[in-house]
Amino acid sequence: MIDLEKLKENTVAKKSDEEEEVVEPTEPVLKYKPVPVVKKRESKVFQHYKCSRSSMKLITTIGTPIVFVLYQFYTDNTEIIGYLDLQIKLGLKSVTKGEALTAEEADPMSRLRREIIAEYVAKEAAELAAAQEAAEAPVGGAGILSSSQVMTSGQSSSSDS
Q1: Which of 33, 42, 100, 137 has the highest CB neighbour number within 10 Å of its CB?
Q2: Contact at 8 Å (CB) between 16 and 47?
Q3: C-alpha angle with apex 48: 47 to 49, nearest 5 degrees?
């Protein structure tokens, strides 16, 4: 926002008590709102469980379904984590507890995105290195020709007198 009071002060200069001369401001006085500090959100932590079957469904004692898909299950629900930990402790052999993962690590699309970006960056770096090597390499065949290499059209290099 422009502070009009200070802008007026910069544009009006008194020559004497009676006369006022209007001059152009050297630079306008601007006031900016402070930029709010954006805190990095803490990502959720998901608990990973593995199953010995490709798909399996468990029902907790309160009726919450736990569905394993492609041998895996991720959750951030503390009740489900507590239930599965208790079942594993009591002897449930088909389920094992995995690592705790952040939301980005647990998301297969973000993992795939990171891999694709890493491959692209490596490919670009290799192409750039190859281009730099080609630019720095000496050019073959560019030099002074000897008299034996110079030939004019229609003449042979052997002496036929």
Answers
A1: 100
A2: no
A3: 120
